[in-house]
TrEMBL record:
The name this protein goes by in its record: ABC transporter ATP-binding protein
Pfam families from the UniProt entry: ABC_tran
Keywords: Antibiotic resistance, ATP-binding, Nucleotide-binding, Transport
Topology within the bilayer: Peripheral membrane protein
PROSITE patterns reported for this sequence: ABC_TRANSPORTER_2 (PS50893)
GO MF assignments: ATP binding
Gene3D superfamilies, per database record: P-loop containing nucleotide triphosphate hydrolases (3.40.50.300)
Stored SUPFAM superfamilies: P-loop containing nucleoside triphosphate hydrolases
Subcellular location: Cell membrane
Chief location bin: membrane
UniProt-listed SMART domains: AAA
């Protein structure tokens, strides 16, 4: 994917991966451009289990970033803490230089979030939900109307805009959730499994909207299990396993010599063995 500097708008102007490499305490004077997301020592314990076990991560601005990992790796817990929805046991997070916990208003005005298990105001229509979200964000009514109409149109929801959200399908819920997350034109958009339950046509529509967003200098951070999708959409990836980041960087760098991101991923998370050896009773003559 082409690289474009947020500041200059010039393609090719982004610094290389080396300039973003993690390092230094969060309060240390940053070298080079401020990352869109800077995470240091992030930790979350549930009982005996460390769901997130000391994550350090810098996510470069203006990129389409995939956060991937097997089930239970800690992706949702990490995204919840990064977006201020879950308080970490330890560690710090900054969004474009603003501390998520010390400066929540500055952070929340700069981010859009489509969380897992999206909870929406079910008894509002899609249109009302956007109007409400826009006013909560402090946007003028006329601007909310304009943006809502455009988003509903692009996301193919105009015909369903007066339907109650409770009657929306899974894919329609994702799309109205995305519209609500985009309405205030955030700098960084966090999406937890945005394509889950979304048909190929709607997925293509969502994809177009996200590409438009990054082309305008926005940063997208999304989690997914679908490697083909991550490979085709993202130019930067972070791989999580057992609460830790096991690889990060531009897609080609993380893929390395593997032929696909899927192969690289399986090898990175130690899942490249053929499973099922112990299920010799399954199928065959043992019925
Ligand atoms: N509220 C909670 N209470 C107890 N354990 C939790 C809680 N939330 C998450 N966990 C545990 O933390 C670990 C990480 O969960 P998380 O949902 O962050 O993983 P994930 O990478 O998003 O997984 P998936 O891909 O399956 O959605 C899991 O073992 C999960 O059981």
């Amino acid at each position: 994917m082409a690289e474009e500097s947020q500041e200059t708008g010039r393609r090719d102007a982004l610094p290389s991966y080396g300039d973003f490499r993690d390092g230094g305490a969060i309060g240390a004077r940053p070298e080079g451009p401020v990352p869109a997301v800077r995470v240091r020592g992030l930790w979350k314990q549930f009982g005996e289990q460390a769901a997130v076990a000391g994550v350090d991560l810098d996510l470069p601005a203006g990129r389409f970033i995939g956060l991937v990992g097997p089930n239970g790796a800690g992706k949702t817990t990490t995204l919840s803490m990064v977006t201020g929805l879950l308080r970490p046991d330890d560690g710090q997070v900054q969004i474009n230089g603003h501390d998520v916990w010390a400066d929540p208003v500055a952070v929340k005005s700069r981010i859009g979030v489509l969380p897992e298990g999206l909870r929406l105001f079910e008894r509002l229509s899609g249109r009302e939900l956007l109007a409400y979200t826009g006013r909560l964000r402090g946007l003028p009514g006329a601007e909310v109307d304009k943006r809502a109409a455009q988003l509903l149109d692009v996301l193919d929801l105009t015909g369903s805009q007066h339907k109650l959200v409770v009657d929306y399908s899974t894919g329609m819920r994702k799309k109205i959730g995305l519209a609500a997350a985009l309405l205030h034109n955030p700098e960084v958009l966090f999406l937890d499994e945005p394509f889950e339950g979304v048909d190929p046509v709607s997925a293509q529509v969502i994809r177009g909207v996200l590409e438009r967003f990054t082309a305008g200098g926005g940063t997208v951070v999304f989690s997914s299990h679908v490697m083909e999708l991550v490979e085709s959409l993202c130019d930067w990836v972070a791989v999580m396993a057992a609460g830790r980041i096991v690889a990060r960087g531009p897609l080609a760098e993380v893929r390395g010599d593997a032929s696909t991101l899927q192969d690289a991923f399986l090898s990175l998370v130690g899942a490249d063995r053929v499973g099922g050896q112990d299920l010799d009773w399954l199928g065959g003559d043992s019925r």
